[in-house]
Amino acid sequence: MAPNLDAVSEAELAAKTGALAAWLRANAPVAIGYSGGVDSAYLAVTARQTLGADGALAIIGRSASYPAEQWQTARDVAQRFDVTVLELDTAELDDPRYAANPSNRCYYCKTELWSRLVPVARARGFATVIDGTNADDLRDYRPGAQAAREHRVASPLAELGFTKLHIRHASRALGIPTWEQPSSPCLSSRLPYGTEVTRGRLRQIELAEAALRRLGIAGDLRVRFHDDLARVELAPAELSTWLAPERMAVLTEAVLEAGFARVALDLRGFRSGSLNVLHGVSAA
Amino acid sequence: MTPNDVRGDRSARNGVALAAALAMRGIECALEVRGALALLLPKPEGVAALQVDENRRAVLALAKEHGFTHVAIELPSERRRSSTPPPDAPVLRD
User: Fold this and answer.
1) How far apart, in whole angstroms, are the C-alpha atoms of residue A149 and residue A20?
2) B77: closest CA among A248, A242, A238?
3) For the residues of A57-91, what is the DSSP string, one character each?
4) Which residues of A touch B58 (CB under 8 A)?
5) Short-list B28, B92, B20, CA closest to B62
6) Measured between CB atoms, which of B53, B70, B75 is closest to A263?
7) Cα separation of A224 and B69, whole Å?
8) What is the DSSP letter of B42?
9) What's the predicted TM-score (pTM) here?
10) Best of A223, A248, A267, A270 to mutate (most B CBs within 10 Å, chain B)
11) Is A171 helix (H, G, I), strand (E, B) or coil?
């Protein structure tokens, strides 16, 4: 479902985008930790348009927890807006502290990402490294933010008060196709804390979500991993449709095909940080 | 669902109570407790009832009252039919 952008006034947006351009100029050149998600796509395109081709470098960290579909989006957006891209492989799954999937798993992932990305960026003359963290993220449980601070990675969107809604609005104005794309955290976020992160499990989740996308589910979607059971979260407005017998059968088969033994549909529907709530890390 | 359907901790007792409350609302189902997740295994008429927004809201409210943060419905599958107990069979997982 397309987000309602009416809550953001043009004047407010103009002030924010102006402040961001000024921030980028003051800190140029910049390297962006780039995933092709809503936030980093906006940041990369804005940096490219503000600073020119030599002033912005988007760096993708590739790993098993990074969905192939999003990788393709990242490359498509970069190509369309002439953003220079560098791709690095990251190996967070080789870190047993990450693979054990503690509640601060993101800290180990981001530590791996920034410890590879920052030296490469600086060696190429990009003293400022930035990420797409936004102001909404600051209100959520985000252990990865600590790793960013430790590596002196700046978050101008958060710093300047850009919410997700601001970013979607500004992205639409620039014609960036990700403006209405659902949020897309890494695949490991589908596993409950304490459940080991393995390449096989991530692949299973990725296959299931890709199969559901092919069925036409365009909005929010998560396949949550509960061992043999896949718990599917859809946008609440989609639930009645997918509980109809013929649609339900199609959905079930698509998920079973990915290797799950059982499929369940969450009756509340998608909620960000659902597994944090389930395991008491954040409030229901 | 009987008290033997789930292992005997507080979550299991909540599951028994939730299944009874759902039955009173006309949604007959077995219920599998997985921590704070209540997994409903309804009969076909129960699935049909859950297509209605108001019924889903009622289920969510009842689940919350009984201490569950998440409720999901297991989707029936031809592929699993031979190895799956009928919906009213005892459920032994927690």
Assistant:
1) 20
2) A248
3) EEEEEE-TTS-HHHHHHHHHHHHHTT-EEEEEE--
4) none
5) B20
6) B75
7) 15
8) E
9) 0.84
10) A267
11) helix
pLDDT band at A95 (very low <50, low <70, confident <90, very high): very high
Q: Do B80 and A261 touch (CB under 8 A)?
A: yes
Q: What's the CA gap between A273 and A203, in Å, rounded?
A: 20
CA A170, CA A176: separation in Å to the nearest integer? 9
Residue B61, class by beta-carbon neighbours within 10 Å (0-12 exposed, 13-18 middle, 19+ buried)? exposed
pLDDT at position A8: 82
Question: Which of A185, A192, A187, A227 is closest to A203 using CA atoms?
Answer: A187
Q: How far apart are CA A19 and CA A166, in angstroms?
A: 13
Which residue, chain included where needed, has tokens 């470098």?
A57
8 Å CB contact of B75 and A240? no
Distance CA(A44)–CA(A217), nearest Å, equals 27
H or E segment and range at residue A130:
strand A128-130
Question: Out of B53, B77, B80, whose CB is closest to A240?
Answer: B53
Domain boundaries, chain B: 3-73
- The CA distances from residue B35 to B6, B13, B39, in Å, are 11, 12, 10
Q: ipTM of the assembly?
A: 0.79
Q: Whose CA is closest to B68, among A238, A268, A69, A239?
A: A268
Are A225 and A192 within 8 A, CB to CB?
yes
Structure-token pair, residue A7: 């809550």
Q: What is the mean pLDDT of residues A76-105?
A: 97
Report whether B70 contacts A278 (CB < 8 A).
Answer: yes
- Can you say how many angstroms the Cα of residue A68 is from the centroid of all Cα atoms in its chain? 13
Which residue in this structure is represented by tokens 């990369």? Answer: A44
